[in-house]
Design brief:
Elements: H1 4-11, H2 15-21, H3 24-28, E1 37-38, E2 44-45, H4 48-64, E3 78-80, H5 81-87, H6 92-107, E4 119-122, E5 128-133, H7 134-143, H8 166-180, H9 192-199, H10 203-215, E6 219-222, E7 225-228
Length: 229
C-alpha cells in the first residue's frame, strides 16, 4: 500500500489525477482505478498491485493502437525526411531527436530508432539530406507499436535534465542503451532489483519507468520477463 503521493509517483500522474480517478464517481463511470482504503491514521492508502494492474491496462490499450497506412505511388521512390516526419506527425525538434537516437545504428549499417536512410547526400548549405524508399517507410510505420498520434514514443527534451522525474531519467537511460545497441531487440532486461541498484532509485521508480516504456512499445513482457521490443 502507498499514500496518495506515492501513488502519484508510481503511476506518473498528479495527486489531483489520483484523487479524481479513484473517486467513487470516476470508478462508477468506469475509470478502472482501484478504490483507496482508509489507513490507520485516517488517511487514504492505495494498493500497489492494483495500481500496477491499472497501468498495465493503460499500456495494453496503448499497444493496441497500432498504425495502418498505405502509401500510393512507386514503392521504390525516395521520399524526403520532411515527408517522412509528416507521415508520423513529428515536429522538427522531435524528428531531430529520433535521428540522434538512430545515428549510432546507422553508422553500423543497421536500422536504428528510424530505418537507415536509403540515400544520404550533402545538403546545399550544410548538413546532410536523407531519403527513404516509400515501401520501407510504409513497412516501418505499419510494424511500429505506439500511440495513435505518431509512429513511436514521444521524445521529451526535458527528460534527462536535473528537474525531470526520476522515472523519466531512468526511461531515457534505457532508451539510450537501446539506441546505442547495448540493449537489443528480444534481450531481457536485468531484474528490478538490479536496475534499482544500477540507477540508485526505488523499485517503484523502476516499475514506473518500465511501465512508461511498455506503453510506448519500447519494452514488452515475455514469458521470461521484460524484454526489448
Amino acid at each position: 500500500m502507498t499514500d496518495r503521493a506515492g501513488a502519484a509517483e508510481f503511476t506518473g500522474r498528479s495527486e489531483h489525477t489520483i484523487t479524481i480517478q479513484t473517486s467513487p464517481k470516476a470508478r462508477a463511470d468506469g475509470s478502472g482505478w482501484p478504490a483507496p482504503v482508509e489507513g490507520p491514521d485516517g488517511g487514504l492508502l492505495y494498493p500497489l498491485d492494483e495500481l500496477a494492474a491499472t497501468i498495465e491496462g493503460i499500456a495494453e490499450a496503448a499497444r493496441a493502437r497500432v498504425h495502418s497506412i498505405t502509401l500510393d505511388g512507386d514503392p521504390d521512390e525516395l521520399i524526403s525526411a520532411v515527408e517522412f516526419r509528416g507521415l508520423i506527425d513529428a515536429t522538427a525538434g522531435t524528428w531531430s531527436k529520433y535521428v540522434d537516437m538512430s545515428k549510432a545504428a546507422w553508422e553500423r549499417g543497421e536500422d536504428g530508432y528510424l530505418p537507415r536512410p536509403d540515400l544520404e547526400e550533402p545538403a546545399r548549405t550544410r548538413g546532410v539530406t536523407r531519403s527513404w524508399a516509400r515501401r520501407r517507410v510504409e513497412t516501418w510505420i505499419n510494424s511500429r507499436p505506439g500511440r495513435s498520434a505518431g509512429a513511436g514514443p514521444r521524445v521529451r527534451t526535458e527528460e534527462t535534465g536535473p528537474t525531470a522525474a526520476k522515472y523519466r531519467r531512468v526511461a531515457a537511460a534505457i532508451r539510450q542503451d537501446i539506441s546505442k545497441g547495448a540493449l537489443t531487440s528480444g534481450q531481457r532486461l536485468p531484474s528490478m532489483n538490479a536496475l534499482s541498484t544500477q540507477y540508485d532509485v526505488s523499485m517503484s521508480t523502476i516499475q514506473r519507468a518500465i511501465a512508461e516504456l511498455r506503453s510506448e512499445g519500447v519494452l514488452t513482457r515475455g514469458s521470461d520477463g521484460i524484454t526489448v521490443a
